[in-house]
Amino acid sequence: MNVTFYCREINFTASIGLDADVVEVQKVASDFARKEMYPNMGKWDKEVPVTNQIGPDNYGFNMAMESLNGGRVNIASCSLGAAQQSLDLAIAHLKVRKQFGKRLADFQWNQFKLAELATKLHTSRLIVRDATRHLDANNIHKASLCAMAKFHATENCSQVVNQALQMFGGYGFLKDYPLQQYLRDIRVHEILEGTNEIMRLIIGRDLLSNETFGST
């Protein structure tokens, strides 16, 4: 098994001179253990043979940035799962829980809220699938499309989970119910693989570029 390291060429700084190299996991692990660098694995001060390089010279930074596109779609997909499960649990709860002599599902407000949550979840799923399709096709705007999917899905799915928990009332915070765990887990999705503020920056810069941005 191998791991990809991003190595800097001698006398180069910043992203220039950053190459991607393959190194055996066993060798990396043994060196870290010998130097007692755990748990701080931020630096591996070793020379890597040029024959281990993958991709062209000075392309390591670009490869690292491109790998984030798939990661952003992955994070968005995780949010879809949490939102779908939360919505399913909320629907089941509203059908059996009663207040003022009738089921919570019979209150028009709850029906309106379910419609909103289902719509947010559905649009999030569609934009994630669309971003994945453009990523596979290597579309010129794949970075901004993945950024759209990431911030749209993570924010809307977070709202779905939060509102689903609201429908459970105080029960939603109890560890007997999984919604409180989903809410804690999904919050970090707006931070991982680039914060949602950075996603907006990526999209904005693409829109202001010379390339025509449109649906393909």
UniProtKB/TrEMBL annotation:
| Alphabetized GO MF terms | oxidoreductase activity, acting on the CH-CH group of donors
Task: Please provide the record's keywords in A-Z order.
Answer: FAD, Flavoprotein, Oxidoreductase
> Signal peptide position in this chain?
none
Q: Where is the Acyl-CoA dehydrogenase/oxidase C-terminal domain?
A: 59-207
| Cofactor section | FAD
One Pfam family cited in the UniProt record for this chain: Acyl-CoA_dh_1
Q: Which SUPFAM superfamilies match?
A: Acyl-CoA dehydrogenase C-terminal domain-like (SSF47203)
Q: Which GO terms describe its cellular component?
A: mitochondrion
- Cite the InterPro entries for this sequence: AcylCo_DH-like_C, AcylCo_DH/oxidase_C, Mito_Isobutyryl-CoADH
Q: Which reaction does it catalyse?
A: (2S)-2-methylbutanoyl-CoA + oxidized [electron-transfer flavoprotein] + H(+) = (2E)-2-methylbut-2-enoyl-CoA + reduced [electron-transfer flavoprotein]
Keyword Oxidoreductase among record annotations: yes
- Tell me the protein family, please: Belongs to the acyl-CoA dehydrogenase family.
**Name of this chain's protein:** Acyl-CoA dehydrogenase protein
Q: Which organism is it from?
A: Necator americanus
